[in-house]
Amino acid sequence: MIQPQNYEVYQWFDLQALLCEQLQISEQDFYNYERKVGGDYKNLWHLALRSVLPDGVANGTIVKLYFGKYKLEPDESKAWENDFIQAWYNLHAELGLDESQNEIWVEFNW
C-alpha cells in the first residue's frame, strides 16, 4: 500500500520577503534592484529564475528547489549578483534547515 507523505511547502513571496530582509531592500526593489545599487536595470526575480529556477515556473505550481544543486556563481561583470547569491545561501540557515536538508518545496502564486 502506498503511504502518503507530508511536505512543508513554503510560499515564494514569504521566501522573497526573507531575501529582501537579508538584502535590506523593499520588496519593490527586488524587481528594480538598480534603485539600491545603481546602474542599468537589475531584476532579482530574473536572477532567481536564471539561478535557482532554470526551468522556469508557472503560476500555481509547487516546485522543489535545491540548495547547492544549482551553481550560483556570479558573472564577474555583474558583481551585484553576489548579494543575492549570499542571501540565497543564508536562507537555508534562516529556515532552520539542517545540513542534510538540501531541498524545499515552494509554491508560486501571483
Would you give an account of this structure?
The protein is an alpha+beta fold. It has one domain (9-108). It contains five helices and three strands, in the order βααααβαβ. It has helices at residues 12-23, 27-31, 34-37, 44-51, 81-94; strands at residues 9-11, 61-66, 103-108. It has a three-stranded mixed beta sheet with strand order 1-3-2. The longest helix is centred in the C-terminal third of the chain and has 14 residues, at 81-94. The radius of gyration is 15 Å and the shape is globular. The termini are far apart. The model has no long low-confidence stretch (mean pLDDT 84).
- With strands numbered from the N-terminus, the spatial order across the biggest sheet is 1-3-2
What percent of residues adopt helix (DSSP H or I)? 25-40%
Order of helix and strand elements from N to C terminus: EHHHHEHE
Low-confidence stretches: none
**H/I helix tally:** 5
Q: How many structural domains does the protein architecture include?
A: 1
Structural class: alpha+beta
Q: What best-fitting shape do the alpha-carbon axes yield? A: globular
Biggest sheet character? 3 strands, mixed
Q: How many DSSP-defined strands?
A: 3
Mean pLDDT: 84
Oligomer: single chain
Query: Could you tell me the radius of gyration in angstroms?
Result: 15 Å
End-to-end CA span: 37 Å
What is the beta-strand fraction?
Answer: 5-15%
